[in-house]
Amino acid sequence: MRILITNDDGIAAPGLKVLQRIAQEIAGDDGGVWTVAPAFEQSGVGHCINYTRPTMIAQLDERRFAAEGSPADCIMAGLYDVMPDGPPDLILSGVNKGNNAAENTLYSGTIGAAIEGALQGVKSIALSQFFGPDNNTLENPFEAAVEHGASTVRALMHDDLWDTANYMPFYNVNFPPVPAARVKGIAATTQGFRLNTRFRAEAQTSPTGRRFLWVRGGPQHEPTDPGTDAAANLDGYISITPMRADLTDYDMVATLEDTLG
C-alpha cells in the first residue's frame, strides 16, 4: 500500500513521527510512505490553500518533503509533484497535538488536509490526540495513538465505508486523553458542540505601544451531547466521525423552499 502523510503541526512535530510509525505498519514491507508536511506550524488554517502565491517545496529525504504552505497545499504537492506515478491508496493527516473534536473540526488544518484528499478522490483519514490531565504527564502523551492508531486505521479500510460520490467521505479520528491501557474501544460518533467554548480574539499592547490580537480557544473538556465525538473521547473511547465536504443543510432545504414560496 502507498500512503501519503501530512499534518498541520509542521515537519518536525512529534505527532508526525507517530503517524509515520502508524503508516509504515499499515503500508507493510511491500508498500511505501511519503511525507509532505508544512515547513512551519499551520495549526488553525482549516482548508486554506496558497491560491495567490506559489508554494516552495524542499526534499529532505528520499520520501520526505517540507512545503511552505498549508496542509491542503501539502496534499496537492504530494499528489501532483511528489507522487507523479499515481495517487496513493490512502492519505493520513496528523497525529494532531490536541483534539479536533466538536467545533475544533471547523478550524483544523489536520481536517483540511483530509478534506482536500477526499476532494481529490483519495481515501483520507484525520487523526488527533486529545490531551488532558491523565495523559499530559506521560512519557509519551501520544501513547493512545501509538498503541491504537494502526488498528483504528485498519478498521476503516473496509470497502463499504467508502463511496465514490462527488463529495467522497473522509473520517475524523480522535484518540481519548487517557493512557493507552485505559482506552475502552472505538465509537462511531457525530460531531459535537461545546456549549461554553468559543474561539475569541484578545487584545494586547506591546512595549512599543502597538496593538496586537491573540486568538484564544475555550475549555476543551466541556461535555458534548451523548453519541458525539468529544463526549466519547472524555469517556475513554476513540471517536470516529464520518464526514463530507458538502456543507449543505439538507434538513432545511424543504423549509427554505416553503418560506420562499
Tell me the layout of helices and strands.
Layout: E1 2-6, H1 14-27, E2 32-38, E3 57-61, E4 64-67, H2 71-82, E5 90-97, H3 109-119, E6 124-129, H4 143-155, E7 170-175, E8 185-188, E9 200-205, E10 211-216, H5 229-234, E11 237-243, H6 250-260
Parallel strand pairs: 1-2, 1-5, 2-4, 5-6, 6-7, 8-11
Antiparallel strand pairs: 3-4, 7-11, 9-10
Helix pairs in contact: 1-4, 2-3
Family: Belongs to the SurE nucleotidase family.
GO molecular function: 3'-nucleotidase activity; 5'-nucleotidase activity; exopolyphosphatase activity; metal ion binding; nucleotide binding
Protein name: 5'-nucleotidase SurE
Summarize the structure.
By secondary structure, the protein is α/β, with parallel strands linked by helices.
Descriptive account of the structure:
The protein is globular. The chain has a single domain (2-193, 222-260), classed as Stationary-phase Survival Protein Sure Homolog, Chain: A. It is 26% helix and 25% strand. Helix 1 runs parallel beside helix 4 (143-155). The model has no long low-confidence stretch (mean pLDDT 97). It has 261 residues and is of the alpha/beta class.
